[in-house]
C-alpha cells in the first residue's frame, strides 16, 4: 500500500489472513514461520492489511472481495486410505475453512476460500497429489444462503 491506495493482495497476504482467521491470537513469530517470512516482513504485511482496511479487527473481518472465491472440494480416497491420514495435510492449507469427513460416495468435503480460479486450481492439484487420494471434484460456491 502506497499513500493510502489499496495494493493487490498476493498469496502470502491471503495465507496470512487464513492463519489469523483460524487463530487471531497467534504471535507474529508463529505467523512468520508458517508463511516462510521474517518476523519484520510479516509485521509489515499486517500493518499494510490493517491500514488498507482489509483487516478491520482481530476477529478477522475481511473487506468484501478480498478473498473472492469459495469452493467445496469433494475428495474420494483410494481403498485402504483413511481421512485420519489425510486431515493434517488438508488442514495445513491456509485456504481451508472447513474439513468434514463424511459417509457416502465421497470421503471428505473441504470448504476453501481463495483469491482466484488459478489458486483454486492449484489447491485442487495439491489435494489430488496427496497420498491416498483417488479423486478430487470441485464445486465453486455461487451464493451463500443462511438459515436460522
Automatic annotation (TrEMBL):
Keywords: DNA-binding, Transcription, Transcription regulation. GO terms for biological process: response to amino acid. The keyword Nucleotide-binding does not apply. GO terms for cellular component: cytosol. SUPFAM superfamilies: Dimeric alpha+beta barrel, Winged helix' DNA-binding domain. Transmembrane segments: none annotated. The keyword DNA-binding applies. Residues 9-70 form the HTH asnC-type domain. SMART domains: HTH_ASNC. One of its GO terms (molecular function) is sequence-specific DNA binding. InterPro entries: AsnC-type_HTH_dom, Dimeric_a/b-barrel, Tscrpt_reg_AsnC-like, Tscrpt_reg_AsnC/Lrp_C, WH-like_DNA-bd_sf, WH_DNA-bd_sf. PANTHER family: HTH-TYPE TRANSCRIPTIONAL REGULATOR LRPC, LEUCINE-RESPONSIVE REGULATORY PROTEIN. This is Lrp/AsnC family transcriptional regulator. It comes from Salinarimonas soli. The lineage of its organism: Bacteria, Pseudomonadati, Pseudomonadota, Alphaproteobacteria, Hyphomicrobiales.
Amino acid at each position: 500500500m502506497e499513500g493510502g491506495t489499496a495494493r493487490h493482495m498476493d498469496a502470502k497476504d491471503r495465507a496470512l489472513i487464513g492463519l489469523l482467521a483460524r487463530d487471531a491470537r497467534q504471535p507474529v513469530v508463529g505467523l512468520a514461520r508458517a508463511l516462510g517470512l521474517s518476523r519484520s516482513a510479516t509485521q509489515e504485511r499486517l500493518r499494510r492489511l490493517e491500514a488498507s482496511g482489509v483487516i478491520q479487527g482481530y476477529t478477522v473481518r475481511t473487506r468484501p472481495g478480498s478473498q473472492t472465491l469459495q469452493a467445496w472440494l469433494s475428495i474420494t480416497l483410494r481403498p485402504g486410505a483413511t481421512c485420519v491420514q489425510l486431515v493434517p495435510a488438508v488442514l495445513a492449507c491456509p485456504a481451508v475453512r472447513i474439513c468434514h469427513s463424511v459417509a457416502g460416495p465421497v470421503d471428505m468435503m473441504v470448504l476453501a476460500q481463495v483469491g482466484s480460479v488459478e489458486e483454486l486450481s492449484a489447491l485442487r492439484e495439491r489435494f489430488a497429489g496427496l497420498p491416498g487420494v483417488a479423486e478430487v471434484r470441485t464445486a465453486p460456491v455461487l451464493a451463500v444462503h443462511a438459515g436460522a
